[in-house]
Amino acid sequence: MEGGLVVEKEQIRSILCYSALVDKLQEAFGSARTYTMPERHHHEIHTRPGGSLLLMPAWSQPSPDQKDDSDEKGKPQRKATPHQPKAYIGTKLVTVFPKNSNKGLASVLGVYVLSCGETGRPLALMNGTELTLWRTACVSALAARYLARAEPGLMVMVGAGALAPHLIQAHIAVHPSIDTIIVWNRTQERASELADALRRLPLFFESFRSVLTTQDLEHSVRAADMVVCATMADEALVRGQWLQSGVHVSLVGSYKPSMRECDDEAVKLSRVYVDAAAAVLESGELSGPISRGVVSKAHILGDLADLVRSDVVGRQSPDDVTLFKSVGCALEDLAAAKLVYEIALSSSSSSSPSSTFVSHSTRSDPMSPHTPTVDEI
Q: What distance in Å separates the CA atoms of residue 168 and residue 15, rounded to the nearest whole number?
């Protein structure tokens, strides 16, 4: 096998920053027509009860200014280096084995394989779960760039799982005016743990941002400028009657029709957008009210690519209630993986490719105590 990099979760954390990834995703969605994304492959592993294998492939084309080695005036254009190609192929491979917890293993495990789009040469093998946490948070924050009102101050975080700290930091990167975070979680202890961890970050104690917890979700949502949900809820948590004019709602957690984080009324009164068309079918928040005739498919005004390209209008006034639903797509993974690879490559001390996959780390990271869930795929 041709050589490449192994990028573990600690390296992803040290390489990425939220603002840069948001910008990279904006660039990717703006040029979404140059990406090919086949449908997600889902295979049942019959030798293990409940076991599944998911494959999420995507590949990019060179941008127009990269296709030729010279422009119309004969001036040389930027050429791809042997290690940084003009086009990429990426595939996320995810296994879901619900009974792994009985063996002390995570139920959802993933890797990301990045290859050269011109030769197929493998370039990098990355921790897929960590990559997904970052890209999911930054997609939500990117949507808020177009849909939240100017200078929001109060953000309510519904859920305190692995995605929550990423979502909070990504949204602050896009809207630094956010000065108060209120965390709600079904388990108050988990909310308090997240709040304590956030308070120790320079982003909070150096900027005098407040992090609070609450058990009264309704009261907090009624006061919020932004409500972000990342839960595994089967029943609506956020009610439309709680949403005040101007609020922006971002729903990240649900990934199948039986799950929902808000009720039909919240969808009905909002200007609704999605990250990809699959969200209309896969999320309970949207598939449910459409099937019940509460709203039509036309109520979904556009996707993130439409917003970035200005093909649709986002927020029209400070009083609009906006709602963004994401379920994830392969373009997001590929954009994030490209950024990680290119930064890792530029910072590598090696001037020649490795003959095998070589980790940047001399040790393996211990398994996170958090067990990823399918919504983090």
A: 19
Q: How many Å apart are CA 300 and CA 149, to the nearest integer?
A: 19
CA pair distance 213, 190, nearest whole angstrom = 10
User: Could you tell me if 154 and 180 are in contact, meaning their C-beta atoms sit under 8 angstroms apart?
Assistant: yes
Q: Which residue has the tokens 């603002």?
A: 19
Please write the tens of the pLDDT for every residue from 15-64: 999 999 999 999 999 999 999 999 888 888 877 777 889 899 999 987 55
Residue 85 pLDDT: 82
Dihedral (CA of 142, 146, 151, 156) sign: negative
Residue 294 in contact with residue 285, Cβ under 8 Å?
no
- Cα 127 to Cα 2: distance, rounded to the nearest angstrom: 19
- Token pair for residue 152? 């929001």
Whether 154 and 225 have beta carbons less than 8 Å apart is answered as yes
Q: Alpha-carbon distance 60 to 58, whole Å?
A: 7
> What is the amino acid identity at position 211?
V
